Here is the input.
Amino acid sequence: MKAKRLCLLDRTDDDLPLGGSQQVCQLSIVPELAKRIEAAGTAFEFLYNLIVHGKGHPESESSDEETKEGEEKGPNLSDWEKKRKVHHPRPVDEENLYAILGLGELGMGASDKDIRTAYRKMALIYHPDKQQTSVTDPIWLKIQNAYETLIDPEKKKKYDSSLDFDDTIPTGPVDPSKFFEVFAPVFRRNAHWSNKRPVPDLGNMDTPMKEVEKFYDFWFAFDSWRDFSHLDEYNLDEAENRYERRYMEKENKKKKAQELKKEKQRIFSLAELAQASDPRILAKRREEEEARARIKAEKQAKKDKQKAEIEERIRKEEEEKLAKEREEAERKAREEEARKKEAERQRNLRKEFIRLLEERVKSREFDKFWGQEYVKRISPEEIAALNEILQAAAKDEETVGILRDGVGRLEKKKEEEKKAEKGKDAQKKVESTMAKWNEEEVAKFYKAVSKFPVGTKNRWDCIATYIGTRTANEVIEKAKELSNNSSMRGLEKQPPQQQPAQAQTQARPEPKVEEAKNGAEPNQSDWSQEQQAALEAALRKFPNTIEAKERWGKIAECVPGKTMKECVDRFKELRAMVKNAGGNAK
Here is the structure.
C-alpha cells in the first residue's frame, strides 16, 4: 500500500505562495485512514492569519505580547458584546395576536376555548379555500401564526409576558375610605400572573377576618409564571460555538433572575402596602391593642390591689404587734407592781413576826435570830398564820407552847406535801415510761415472761436483759400494768414437764438483740403455748399434699409473730424430739 502525504491546510488563494498550496504539516498516512478536516471556526481563522499574514492579522496592530496575552485569556468577549440584543419598545403599529383573532377585548384573559372558537370563526372567513387564494396569503398566515402561538401554553406565556403591562402600584399611605377603590383593580390585574388558581379576591368590609388573612398570605407567597425571556441579552442562535452559547445562556439566566427578583419584590411591596392601609386590618389591630391595654390595665389593677392588701396586712400586723407590745408592757408593769406589793407585804409579815416574837416570846429556843432564819423557810401564808397565833396568845408560857405546836404542825404539813409531790412525780415518771413502750418491746416482753417463768432467779433482770432497752423497774411496772391481762396469766402458768428445759435455757446466756439482727439463729424454745397451738392447728389444716412453699407460707400466716423459716425449724425440732423419744423407749 502506497502512503500519501496529507495536507492539513489546502486552499486556493492568489495570495498563497507555492502556486496556491501551502503545506503546513506533512504526515505519511494511509489514504484509507486519513481523516477529512473541515476548515472553520475561530481557531482556523487565527491559524490562517498566523500563516498567511505572519504574526497575527494584517489589519491588527497588536504586538506579539498582546497576541500571547490574548491566547492565554482565550477568545475576546468584545466580539460577543456586539451580539448583545438592543431592546426597543414594541412598535405601536405591530398587530396584537389577540386582535388578529378578534379577541382584543379579552386580551390576555382569553381562555383556550375562546381562542379555538375565534380561530374557527376566522377560518370560516379567511381560509384559502373560502377566499380562493393561496396558502401563503398574508392574512391567513397571520391568523395561523396567532393561533399557533396562543394555543400553545408555553408560547402564550412568553407572548403574554412580552405584552405591555401596567406594573405600577400605589405608593404611600392610602385613605382607608378609598382603599377598595384603589387596590382592588391592581390585585385583579396582577392576578393574571398567578400559577395558583383560584386567586382570592380583596373582598369588602364585611369579609370575615379569616378570609382576609388568607388573602394576604396568598399574596405574600405569590407564585408567578411571568416569563422574562423576551428580555434576554443574547440570541442563542447567533452563537458560533458551544462556549459562546454557554456564556449567552449564563447571561440570559442572570438577567431572568434579576427580573424575577424585581417582580417578587413588586408584588410583596403591593401586598405590604395594602395590608398597612387595609381598614379591616387596622380595625383588628386597634381591637388587639385595646385588648392588650385592657389586659395590662387589669393586671396592673390586680397588682395594685395585691400591693394594697399586702400593705394593709402589714399595717394591721404592725398595729397588732404594737398593741401586743403595749399589753405586754402593761402586764409586766402590773406584775412588777404586784410583785413589789407582794414583796412589801412579805417584808411586813416577816417584820411583824420578828416584832411579835421579841415582844410575846421570852425564850432562847425562839429568839430573834431563830425567827430571822425560820421565816426564810416558810411561806408568807404560814408567817401570817404564826402572827395570828402570837397575837392571840396571852402569857409567855402559853405563847411558847402555842408557837411550838404551830411550828410542829407546819413542819408536819410540809413533810406531807413533800411526800405527795414525790408520789406525783413517781406516778408521772411511770406513766411517761409506760407510754413509751413500742410494739417490738411489748412483743419481747411477752416472750421473756414465757421464757423466764415464776421462780427463775433474778427473773426481772433476765427479762430486762432480754428486752435490751428497759430496766428491771420498768419491766416490773409493765408487769403490774398487765397483771389483769388473761394472756399474761396464761403465760405465767407453765406445764411442769417444761420447767427443766426452761431452767436449762435460763442457764444459757441470752443472745443480744444485735446478734439476732446480724443473722444469728433464734432459740427454738421461745415458742409460747398459743404459738405452739396455732402451729399444730395449721399443720392439721394444711396437709402435706399442698406444694411445700405455699403450705408453709399459709402456716406462717396462721402463727402470730413467727416467720415461715421459724415454723419450719420448729417442725423439724419437734419431729427430732419425737424420734429421739421413740428410740429411747425401744
Summary: The beta strands are 4-7, 26-29. The first strand starts at residue 4 and ends at 7.
